[in-house]
């Protein structure tokens, strides 16, 4: 029986560079072409905090997409959405909180709302620039979100440019996303490419772990099978993909 191999990639910092704006960057065309070639022989998926609309627009035609840390997953002809998106009131809480932040704090805090393909809010990332003090309103937003039963994640860095905090309708992590993708795509071996703390759970589920190094994570220590510079990832894949797929 032929083993089906899965090449799973984080998006920001791996497929696309970390840019000065948390709205994100665009994948290098050379890397995009190599990913397209890979997908003709193997299952290729993206595992990201971005929503599926964002990922489908920038990386179309892949085998799978695990979006907003797995709150929505598209793979194997299925669309799997967390029950909180349709059975609960938490999407409305996300919408209300996003509106309040936009109306009251937009001079200090930016916001990106992640939605399902049907426009149901799954969560949001709020961010603020590092050259400013951390807004005092962050504590208020965090406490209000928690009071509504929303999941508030730890504050993290967006490169050297900003800090951000994710707020979701339910708690998910990339290890769960990898397991679901693996099942839906009938994959027997997972090769995972990541660059940050949020990828550590996914690395634990992978058979081969590739840490993608760039200027924004030079101090990060993560156990991996390979370490590859982001600028050399396309060339590295050309040289090593066939061996990894054995």
Could you give a quick summary of the protein structure above?
This protein is of the alpha/beta class and 246 residues long. The protein contains eight helices and 13 strands.
Structure description:
The protein is an alpha/beta fold and 246 residues long. The chain is built from eight helices and 13 strands. A hairpin with a 2-residue loop joins strand 4 (72-75) and strand 5.
Beta-strand content estimate? 25-35%
Strand element count: 13
Determine the mean pLDDT: 95
Q: Provide the spatial order of strands within the biggest beta sheet.
A: 5-4-3-2-1-11-12-13
Tally of structural domains: 2
Q: What is the terminal separation in angstroms?
A: 13 Å
According to CATH, what is the class of the largest domain?
Alpha Beta
Low-confidence stretches: none
Roughly how much helix do the residues carry, as a percent range? 25-40%
The backbone outline, from C-alpha atoms, is globular
Sheet bearing the most strands, described?
A: 8 strands, mixed
Instruction: Write the CATH architecture name of the largest domain.
Output: 3-Layer(aba) Sandwich
List key phrases describing it.
246 residues, five-stranded antiparallel beta sheet, alpha/beta, single chain, Rossmann fold, eight-stranded mixed beta sheet, 8 helices
Explain the layout of strands and helices.
Blueprint: E1 5-9, H1 29-39, E2 43-47, H2 52-58, E3 64-67, E4 72-75, E5 78-81, H3 84-87, H4 90-105, E6 110-115, E7 121-129, H5 137-147, E8 151-152, E9 156-158, E10 162-168, H6 174-184, E11 189-194, H7 200-205, E12 208-213, E13 226-229, H8 233-244
Parallel strand pairs: 1-2, 1-11, 2-3, 11-12, 12-13
Antiparallel strand pairs: 3-4, 4-5, 6-7, 7-10, 8-10, 9-10
Helix pairs in contact: 1-8, 4-5
């Amino acid at each position: 029986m032929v083993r089906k191999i899965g090449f799973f990639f984080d998006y920001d910092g791996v497929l696309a560079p970390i840019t000065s704006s948390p709205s994100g960057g665009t994948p290098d065309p050379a890397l995009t072409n190599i990913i397209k070639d890979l997908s003709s022989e193997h299952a290729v998926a993206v595992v990201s905090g971005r929503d599926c609309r964002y990922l489908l627009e920038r990386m179309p035609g892949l085998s799978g997409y695990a979006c907003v840390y797995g709150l929505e997953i598209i793979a194997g002809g299925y669309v799997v959405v967390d029950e909180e998106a349709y059975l609960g009131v938490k999407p409305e809480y996300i919408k209300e909180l996003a509106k309040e932040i936009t109306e009251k704090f937009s001079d200090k805090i930016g916001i990106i709302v992640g939605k399902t393909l049907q426009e149901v809010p799954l969560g949001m990332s709020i961010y603020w620039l590092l050259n400013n003090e951390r807004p005092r309103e962050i504590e208020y937003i965090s406490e209000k979100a928690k009071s509504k039963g929303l999941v508030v994640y730890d504050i993290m860095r967006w490169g050297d440019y900003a800090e951000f905090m994710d707020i979701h309708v339910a708690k998910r992590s990339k290890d769960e996303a990898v397991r679901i993708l693996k099942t839906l795509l009938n994959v027997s071996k997972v090769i995972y490419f990541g660059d940050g703390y949020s990828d550590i759970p996914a690395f634990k589920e992978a058979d081969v772990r590739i840490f993608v190094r760039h200027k924004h994570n030079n101090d990060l220590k993560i156990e991996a099978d390979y370490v590859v510079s982001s600028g050399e990832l396309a060339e590295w894949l050309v040289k090593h993909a066939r061996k990894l797929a054995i």
